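Final report, Chapter 2: Outcomes

The project's central promise was a pipeline that accepts a single protein chain and returns its three-dimensional structure in a standardized token representation, suitable for archiving and comparison. That pipeline is now operational. To close this chapter, we reproduce one record exactly as it appears in the project archive, with the input sequence first and the structure output second.
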Amino acid sequence: MKPFIVTLAAAFSLLIAASSYAQSLGDLAKKEKERRLQVKSEPKVITNREASKYHLGAVTTGSRLTPPAKQDSEKPTLAKPEGSMAGPVSDEPTDFQGRPESWWRQTLSDARKNVKDLENEGNVLTLRQADLQNQFYRESSGFKQQDIQREIQKTFYEQDLNKEKLAKAKKELEDLEKEARRSGALTGWLNPKTP
């Protein structure tokens, strides 16, 4: 009989816990309903059919629409995004997305520097491989040749990684230049400044 009493007591405590849990869920649902009633407006969802009206509008992520001055205005005004592309600091010309010339020059300069650094790294790896091969043929000890051979294999692996990174960096630079042209950046902005 004792196990039955323990089981009955455990079931009763579960029943009490479940009822208190259900009450708390009901309270939560009530609070959520009240919260939703307090929210005045929902964000506007732009469908594919309406997208053509907004094709020249600024693209922002995470910002909310500001209340329009008039209800009959067609284009909504967007809040200024916070960040580095919030707008030009001076009277600097901008592209269609509001990115200034200095932003494009800096971004493209960084991308070109990355490509140049990877090309230099590839040249260093090629020279290192040639030096290791010379060491391998000069060495008479088989054990030392094995160590050098491992270093040569490691250099081949590093060269392969470098080639992949370089191809990716060149593709990113090319894509960045295409994006600049599509967004209305002037051709002179894409060329590096000459001293």
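Archive annotation: Residues 101-190 form one domain.
This record, like all others produced under the grant, will remain available to the consortium after the project formally closes.
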